[in-house]
Amino acid sequence: xxxxxxxxxxxxxxxxxxxxxxxxxxxxxxxxxxxxxxxxxxxxxxxxxxxxxxxxxxxxxxxxxxxxxxxxxxxxxxxxxxxxxxxxxxxxxxxxxxxxxxxxxxxxxxxxxxxxxxxxxxxxxxxxxxxxxxxxxxxxxxxxxxxxxxxxxxxxxxxxxxxxxxxxxxxxxxxxxxxxxxxxxxxxxxxxxxxxxxxxxxxxxxxxxxxxxxxxxxx
Length: 219
Description:
Elements: E1 2-6, H1 10-22, E2 26-30, H2 33-38, E3 45-49, H3 57-66, E4 73-77, H4 82-90, E5 95-98, H5 103-114, E6 123-126, E7 129-132, E8 137-140, E9 143-145, H6 149-160, E10 166-167, H7 168-175, H8 185-198, E11 207-210, E12 214-217
Parallel strand pairs: 1-2, 1-3, 3-4, 4-5
Antiparallel strand pairs: 6-7, 7-8, 8-9, 10-12, 11-12
Helix pairs in contact: 4-8, 6-8
């Protein structure tokens, strides 16, 4: 697998490049936002630092998604506020990891993003919402709704379990494929983004919050 690391701190870049190459990845490095943006297209995954010279990682992500590049992107960031997390995910990032981090956790997050998704011809309906797994499209009242890969996976999981309360940790394990201790607060960020795109209120009857437990999709 070919990875592009966009990181301006040379020590961190050398450490990550060496570690990832020892795990069998081919890693190229760009030290600034514009350089990373220019060479991002032929890779299987992008690791992008948030604070970069020239263009921030957030700007790089926004521009890549505007160009319809769907390559998985993971932010490396020292930022830890909810607002920053929301901004990164809404820009189109697939995941983020806060500095400082353990290399083993980063490696697992990379592997999660690179796992193949099995093909399916299933379709799910929730009130005015239709989710087609085969075409990877979501419609509400016949209007196409553009979702990120992770937002689509989250909605799909809730619809597969329609009528059942999905616990937060179970969602993290099945949607994020993460089976170690993980801050489930990221789930709230994704749910807020999903509801916003589907034009649903927090108390909407279709996607309900079960306080302290998780979420449930109900007709």
